C-alpha cells in the first residue's frame, strides 16, 4: 500500500511569484517580445508550483521525501528506521516586516506537523505539515495499521550532562 501524505507549499506566500509571472506576461505586450522574459516566466511558475511532500510504501517499508517543481517530484527512496514512531507537534510561525516608512506588518500562522522520530526522539524527519489536525488524523491511523508506526508523545531523551548544566 502507498500513502501519499499532504504536500506543502515551499513558499507559503506565493504572491511575489504571481507578481513576477503577471509582470513578465504583460511587459512583452508593451515593449515587444524579448527572449529573456521567458526566464522570468520560469521563475514565476517555479515558485508557484514548488511543493514538498512524502510518500510511504508499505511493501518494503520505505519513504520517498520529495521536492516537486513543475509537478516533477525529485528525491530518493529511504528506508524507514527500525523502532521509529510518529509524533504530532503544534507549530507557530510568525513573520514581522517593517519598511522605511515605519509601516509594520505582522503575520502569524499556526499549524500541525507530523514527524517521524527515532527511539530516543532525538532525530526528527518531517513527514507532513497542515493547517488543521483533522487533515492528519486519517493518515495517522493508516501509519499505525500499515507501517506499525505508533503515535507517541514527543519527549526527547535528555543526557546527564545537559541535565547537570541546567541545574546550575
How much strand? Answer: 35-45%
Radius of gyration based on Cα positions:
21 Å
- Please tell me what the overall shape is: extended
Strands, total number: 8
The whole-number mean of residue pLDDT values reads 86
Order of helices and strands: EEHHEEEEEEHH
Low-pLDDT ranges: none
Overall tally of domains: 2
- First-residue to last-residue Cα separation: 51 Å
- Largest sheet composition: 5 strands, antiparallel
The total of helices stands at 4
**Which structural class do the helices and strands define?**
alpha+beta
What share of residues is helical? 25-40%
Concise overview:
With 168 residues, the chain is an alpha+beta fold. It has helices at residues 15-31, 37-49, 137-146, 160-167; strands spanning 2-4, 8-9, 51-57, 62-69, 72-79, 85-98, 104-117, 124-130.
Description:
With 168 residues, this protein is α+β, with helices and mostly antiparallel strands. The protein folds into two domains: 1-79, no CATH class; 81-156, no CATH class. It is 29% helix and 38% strand. The chain has four helices and eight strands. The chain has helices spanning 15-31, 37-49, 137-146, 160-167, and strands at 2-4, 8-9, 51-57, 62-69, 72-79, 85-98, 104-117, 124-130. Strands 1, 2, 3, 4 and 5 form a five-stranded antiparallel beta sheet that branches. The chain has a three-stranded antiparallel beta sheet with strand order 6-7-8, with no helix packed on it. A hairpin with a 4-residue loop joins β3 (51-57) and β4. α1 runs antiparallel to α2. The N and C termini lie far apart (51 Å).
